[in-house]
Design goal:
By secondary structure, this protein is mainly alpha-helical. About 65% of the residues lie in helices and about 5% in strands. Strand 1, helix 2 (about 40-45) and strand 2 form a beta-alpha-beta unit.
Length: about 290
């Protein structure tokens, strides 16, 4: 859902770019407009534009519409690249959170046991290409006086390359998301190893009347003990917990269970199952509205 929010903002940026793009330059002529008495409002409407451009010099010398798209494309590519990096990590043996489909992976040229997350790596790399298209056109436009200059023909290659690259990345990423197999059991074990519940232990102590500064120190000390002994917080006995804080009671184990840690964060935007389901429903409703004619 975090990446959904990113992609939703990307969609809004493309929408905003289209609003500024959809203005008709017809009638601007070479730079100072035409001497023929055309009706620019009528021609813009006939050609399905929202309105005519306001200034003829600006209309022939501006490439903001292309830059708006390229900026939105670069930011969308950034988000795809971040998610691609997650998949590269999650698919590695060190994590094992996800198995990517064979159709979107390849074997190593030398290591027979290796499965390369090709799609994720390629999408991560293509982001640099989209950035290059944006920076190239920004550089072309930075010192051009009014009005049209031949430098501006460089806009086509950058715009269409970014469009084609991003469109392919989106299609391929969609297929990877559709066919990837996630392993929540492995994720849960990894969460336990990472002392995810250390903050909840501190919060539990605060609930018992311990000042947070002291609770933070106690939780940290117990985590240090676990690291030295290769154990988890839930594996410590009640006596061991009370050695650091006498106020600990048997309900501590329920309070710092991974399930309780997640369930407790039920505010909007949190990871509790109910909160996530509500977010998903809102997202589905929003997508349905976007798809409506």
């Amino acid at each position: 859902m975090a990446y959904y929010e990113m992609i939703r903002r990307d969609r809004s940026r493309f929408h905003d770019a289209r609003v500024r793009l959809n203005q008709c330059p017809l009638g601007s002529a070479a730079l100072a407009g035409t001497g023929f008495p055309i009706d620019r409002e009528m021609t813009a409407q006939a050609l399905a534009f929202d309105l005519p451009t306001a200034n003829s010099l600006d209309a022939v010398s501006d490439r903001d519409f292309a830059l708006d798209y390229l900026m939105a494309a670069a930011q969308c590519s950034l988000h795809l690249s971040r998610l691609a990096e997650e998949f590269v990590l999650w698919a590695s043996q060190a994590f094992g959170f996800v198995t990517l489909p064979d159709a979107l992976s390849t074997g190593s040229s030398i290591m027979p046991q290796k499965k390369n997350p090709d799609v994720a790596e390629l999408i991560r790399g293509k982001t640099g290409r989209v950035y290059g298209d944006l920076m190239g056109l920004l550089t072309v436009m930075k010192g051009i006086p009014l009005a049209y200059n031949k430098d501006m023909q460089e806009d086509k290659e950058a715009f269409f390359d970014a469009f084609d690259t991003l469109a392919k990345c989106l299609r391929t990423f969609t297929e990877m998301l559709r066919t990837a197999v996630f392993h929540p059991d492995v994720m849960e074990k990894s969460a336990a190893r990472g002392f995810t519940n250390a903050t909840d232990l501190a919060d539990y102590l605060v609930g018992k009347g311990v000042p947070f500064r002291d609770a933070h120190h106690i939780s940290g000390a117990l985590v240090g003990k676990c690291i030295r002994e290769n154990r988890q917080l839930l594996e410590l006995s009640l006596e061991e917990l009370r050695a650091e804080c006498p106020g600990v009671e048997e309900d501590v184990y329920q309070a710092i269970s991974l399930q309780a840690c997640v369930q407790r964060r039920s505010l909007q935007g949190g990871p509790a199952p109910d909160a996530v389901c509500r977010s998903i429903r809102r997202g589905e409703e929003w997508l349905a509205r976007q798809a409506a004619p």
